[in-house]
Amino acid sequence: VIPSLDAWLPVLVVAASTITGIAIAPLRDEQVRARTILNLAGALAKLALVAVIFQGFLRDHEYESRLALVPGFDFVLRVDAISLLFAVLSSVLWLVTTIYAIGYLEGSPHRSRFFAFFSFSVAATMGIALAGNLLTFFVFYEALTLATYPLVIHRGTQQALAAGRTYLAYTLAGGAVLLVGVGWTQAIAGPVEFQLGGALDAVAEGRRAELIVLFGVLIVGVGVKAALVPLHGWLPIAMVAPAPVSALLHAVAVVKAGAYGIVRIVYELYGLELAVELGVLAPLAAAAALTIVWGSVRALAQDELKRRLAFSTVSQVSYITLGVATFGPLASIGALVHLIHQGLMKITLFFCAGNIAETLGLHRISELGGIGRRMPLTMAAFTVAAFGMVGVPPVAGFVSKWYLGSGAVEAGELWVLAILGVSGVLNAAYFLPIVYAAWFRAPTADWEQRKPGARAETSLVLLVPCLATAAMALLAGLLAASPISPLELASWVTEALYAP
Amino acid sequence: MTLALAVLVPLVSAIAAFALPRGWTARTGMAGALLTAASAASVVALVAAEGEREVALGGWEAPLGIALRADGLSAVMVAMAAAIGVAVSAHAARSLPSRGGAGWRQGQAFWPLWLSLWAALNAVFLAGDAFNVYVALELVTLPAVALVTLERDREALAAAMRYLIAALLGSMAYLLGVALLYGDTGTLDLVGIGQRVEPGVATTVAVAALTAGLLVKAALFPLHFWLPGAHSRAPAAVSAVLSGLVVTAAAYLVLRLWLYALAPALTLAAAEALGVLGAAAVVWGSLQALRAGRLKLVVAYSTVAQIGYLFVVVALVWEGAGSGQVGLVSGEATAWQGGIYHAVAHALAKASLFLAAGNVILCVGNDRLSGLGGLSARLPLTVATMVLAGHSLAGLPPSGGFTAKWLMLVAAIEHAAWWWAIILVAGGLLTVAYMLRAVMPAFGRAPATQNAAPVPRAMEVSAFALALAAILLGFRGEELVSLLEVGM
After folding, report:
1. In this complex, do A69 and B337 lie within 8 Å of one another by their Cβ atoms?
2. What's residue B96's pLDDT?
3. Residue B343 in contact with residue B315, Cβ under 8 Å?
4. DSSP secondary structure string, B55-108?
C-alpha cells in the first residue's frame, strides 16, 4: 500500500495550530513581527489544509487518522460531512479573529502567552470538529476548557480571576459529567464511533431506560458549554475576557463546541430514529425552548453591551439545539445552517463591541446615543448583524429561522413556531434599541472631540474584520441559493443524514 | 542473573559511593544510578521477550534462599523506579552538593542512602516470597527515614522520628501476619501461599495484621498521619523518592497480595472496606491539600489522596469478580490495568512536583503559596512542569493520569459500581482545585522586594522530563498494558 497523505491530513489540521502555539509561546512580547507572521502562517496553513480536505471529500476521499492507545481505546480523527461543516466555519472565522486580535492586543502585556493559548484553542476546536468517536471528542473538549481558561483570565484582574474560577467550575464539572457519559457509553456498547444514522442502534434492545438516562447525562455534559439553561451561568461572567476572546468563545469555539456536541450525539451517536423512538427529543426541545426565551428575557435587562450580547448567545445557540430536537430534514437544515450563521453574526457583534470599547472606552448601551456618526462603518456592521439576529431578510439569520420554522410546521410541532415568534419579538426588543440609539438618538457625548487624528474611525486592523464578517453574514443570506453558500452545505449534510 | 543485577548494581554503587573519597561521591552515585537504570532496562527487556522469570540466588531453594521473581507487573514497577531514579539523581547532583558549599554533608550522606534505598525498592518489586518482602521493606524503611533527617532542623527530625516509629510498627504487624500465614500454609512463597491459603480465623487475623502493616507504610487514610510531615520536610530529591516510589511500593504489595496471593482467603466485603478507606483518603487528602499553605505540603497531602485510588482499585477488581474468585480475567483486568497505570502516572507526576517544589524553594527561599508571585516569568520551565504534572495528576486528557482514570471509570460503570465512579470523577475535580490553588499564584505579580537565586538548568530539566513522561504515558499505552499481561 502506498503510504497516503490522506491518513495524515486530519492530524495535520490539528497540528498546524498546535505547532503555531508552541512556536509562539517562547517569543518575547516585543517580537511583534515574528509572532504576527507565525499567527497568520498558522491560520492560513490551516485554512489551506481544510480546503484541501474539502476538495478531496467531494471526490470521495476518506480522511481518517487513528492511534490505538490502550485496547478498546482508539484515538480517531475523521472527516465526515458534519465535521467538515464545523471545520470550515472554524478555520475561516479563525483567520479573521486572529487578524482582529493582533490589532486589538497591540501594546498590551503577555501577548505571546495570549496568542499561544489562542492557537491551542484553535487546535482543540479542530480536534472537536474532527473527533471520530466520543472519547476523542472528550479529550479535545477538555483541552478546549484548559486552553481557553488562560484567555478568560488574560487581564489578570481580580474580576477576571474570579470569572476564570467560575468558568472552570462550570466547564470542568460539565466535563466530569461528560466523562461519566463517555465511560458509560463504552461500558454499554464498546468503542463506538460517530456515524450518520447512529451507532447505538445495535445495543438498544432491552436497554431503553439506560439509554434514556445516558442521553441525559451526555446532554448535561455538553450542555454546560452549549449554555443550556440552567447550565449557562458561566457565560455572562466570562465577559470580562478581551473582545477577541469573547468573539471566539461565542461564535466558534466554546459555546459552539457544546452545540456541536449535541449535534453529534443526536445525529451520529444515537441517530435520529433511535432518539425519536426513545422519546428523548421532546425534553431536549423543551430545554432549548426554555433557554431561548430565558436568554432573550435576561438580555433585555442588560445595559452593558457585552453582557447583553452574552445573554443573546445563550438564546441564539439554542436555536441549533431546537432544530436538532425537531425531527425532519427542514429543521435539521435550519439547525446546521444556524451553526454557521450564528457564528458569522455573533462574531461581528463582538468585534463591534470591541471596537467601541477599544476606540472610545464605552461599555454601556446607554452611552451609545448617536455613536453611528462617530463610527459609521462599525455601527453599519453591527446593524447588519443585529438585523440578522432578529431574522430580518436578507441577512443570514432569516434563512436559519425560515428553515427552523418550516421544519416545525413539517414536524407538526406548532409550539416551536410560537417559540420562534416570541423569540423574534424579544430579539427585536433588545437589539433594535441599540441600533436606534446609535443612528437616531441625540449624541450622549461630543464625538467629534474624541476623534483621534487618524483618517479612519478606528484602526484598520479592527475595522476590516468586522466589515468582512458582516459582509459574510449578509452574503450568506443573499446568496443562500448559490452552490457554495452555508445553506447549500447544510442541505448537503442533511441529505446524507436522511438518506434511507 | 539479570534480576539479581537490578538489586546488586545499586547496592554495590551505594557501597562505592560511601567508601570512595569525598570528591568521588556524587560522580560514583550518578554512575551507579545510570548503571541501575540500565539493569532495570534489561529486566524489562527480558520479561518482555521471555515472559515471567524466576531465580533462586546462589542456588538455594526456598525457604532458605532468596527467590527473585519478575512478571510483567514487577517489570513495570522496576522501570518506573528507574525513570524516577535517574531524574532524581540528576536533580540531586545539583541540589545536594557533596563537595563545596555549606551543605556538603547532605550530599555525602544522600548518595549511599539513596542508592541502597533504590536497591531495596527493586528487591521489593522482585521478591518472590513473603519473608523476603519483609526484609526488603525494612531495607526500604531505614534509608528512607535516614534521608528525611538530611534536613537537619527540628521539624525534620521530629517528622523522621514519627515516620520511623510508624514504619517499624507497620513492619512488625506485617511480620506477624507473615508468621501466621507460614504457620497456616507452611510456605512463604507467594505463589505457594496462593495455592494453599484457605479462609479461616487464623488466615483472617494473618491477613488483617499483614495488611494493616502495609497500609501504614502506604499511608492509607487514616494511617497517613506520618506522611505530610516527613514528605514535606525532607529535601526535594528525597521527597520525590518517598512520595513517588516508597509509598507506591507498599501499595503495590497490597495490590499484589490482595489480588493474587491472598485472594482465595478474602471476601468482597473486605475489599470494599479497603475501597472505602481509599475513597476516604481521596476526599480527606484533597481537602487537606486545599487548605495547606505551603507548596510541598499541598503535594504531600496530594499523595495521601492519590494513593487512595489504588485501594479503590482493589474494591473495583473485586466488584468485577463478584463473590467468586478473583481471576483477573477480561472485565477485572480493566480496573487492574487502570490501577497500575495510576500508580505509575502518579509516581512520575508526584516526583516531578516535588523536584519542582525544590526548584521553587531554591529560587525564592521558601515555598509559601503566597510568595510564589512572578515565578512564571522567573522559572518558566518549572512552572510549566507544575502545570503538566498537575494536569496528569488531575486525570485531564491526554495524560497517563487520564488513561488510568478512564480505565478505572469504565470498569466501575461496567460493574454498575456508581459510588466508585463518583469518587473517581469527584477526586479528579478536587485535584484540579488544589493544583490550581497551588500553581495560579505563580502567574501573579512578583513582590517588589524579592531576591531570587538562580536555579541550575539540570534541576529544572529533570523535573520537567518527569512531568512530560507522565503526559506522554497517555499516548502510548499498548506496550505498558501488554507488558502487564505477562505472567497474569
Report:
1. no
2. 83
3. no
4. EEGGGPPTTTS-EEEE-HHHHHHHHHHHHHHHHHHHHHHHHS-SSSSTTHHHHH
Tens of pLDDT, residues A137-162: 999 999 999 999 999 988 888 888 88
pLDDT digits over B385-418, tens only? 999 999 999 999 889 999 999 989 988 888 888 8
B336, B341, B406, B464, best to mutate vs chain A, most A CBs in 10 Å: B406
Rounded to whole angstroms, the Cα distance separating B75 from B43 reads 6
Name the residue facing A70 among B396, B429, B481 (closest C-beta): B481
**Considering CB atoms only, which of B409, B410, B432 is closest to A172?**
B432
Give the alpha-carbon dihedral of B442, B448, B451, B455, to 10 degrees: 30
Helices A460-478, A396-411: crossing angle, 10 deg rounding: 40
Record: contact A173-B407, CB cut-off 8 A: no
Distance in angstroms (rounded) separating the CA atoms of residues A272 and B27: 68
For residues A373 and A306, give the distance between their C-alpha atoms in angstroms, rounded to a whole number.
21
- What count of other Cβ atoms lies within 10 Å of the Cβ of residue A455? 6
Tens digit of each residue's pLDDT (9 = 90 or more) over B230-272: 888 888 999 999 999 999 999 999 988 888 778 777 888 888 8
A340: left (phi over 0), alpha (psi -120 to 50) or beta: alpha
C-alpha cell at B291: 487548605
Q: Position A290: which residue type?
A: L
* Residues of chain A in Cβ contact (below 8 Å) with chain B: 67-71, 73, 135, 138-139, 142-143, 146, 156, 161, 168, 172-173, 176, 179-180, 183-184, 186-187
Measure the CA–CA gap between B25 and A357, rounded to whole angstroms. 64
The residues, any chain, with a CB within 8 Å of residue A412's CB and separated by 6 or more, are none
> What is the per-residue pLDDT for B329?
43
Residue B383 near residue B375, CB atoms below 8 Å: yes
Q: State whether residue A65 is helix, strand or coil.
A: strand
Question: Chains A and B: how many Cβ contacts under 8 Å?
Answer: 63
Determine which helix (DSSP H) or strand (DSSP E) holds B358, and give its type and residue range: helix B330-364
Rounded Cα gap, residues B193 and B131, in angstroms: 12
Pick the closest to residue B488 from B347, B317, B342 (CA basis): B317
DSSP three-state, residue A190 = coil
Kind of pairing, strands B53-56 and A73-78? Answer: unpaired
Using DSSP's 3-state secondary structure scheme, residue A74 falls into: strand
* Cα–Cα dist A17/B115, whole Å: 44
Q: How many CB atoms lie within 10 A of CB B102?
A: 7
Cβ pair A187:B410 closer than 8 A: yes
Q: Please determine, for residue B62, whether its predicted confidence score (pLDDT) is greater than 80.
A: no
CA dist., res. B275 & res. B258, Å (int) = 12
* B124 vs B78: CA distance, rounded Å: 10
What pTM does this model have?
Answer: 0.91
Pick from B336, B408, B413, B445 the residue to mutate for testing the A interface (most A CBs within 10 Å).
B413
Chain centroid to CA A325: 18
Q: By the 8 A CB rule, do A400 and A319 touch? A: yes
Specify the pLDDT at position B101: 60
Reduced to 3 states (helix: H, G, I; strand: E, B; else coil), residue A78 is strand
ipTM of this complex prediction, to 2 decimal places: 0.88
Which chain A residue's Cα is nearest to B331? Answer: A187
Q: Is B443 on the interface with A (CB under 8 A)?
A: yes
Q: What 3-state class would DSSP assign to B294? A: strand
Fill in the DSSP letter of residue A328: S
Query: What's the whole-number mean pLDDT along residues B460-482?
Result: 89
Rounded Cα distance, A310 and A420, in Å: 19
Output the CA torsion B365→B367→B368→B372 (10° steps). Answer: 80
Question: Could B477 and A69 be called an inter-chain contact, meaning their C-beta atoms sit closer than 8 Å?
Answer: yes
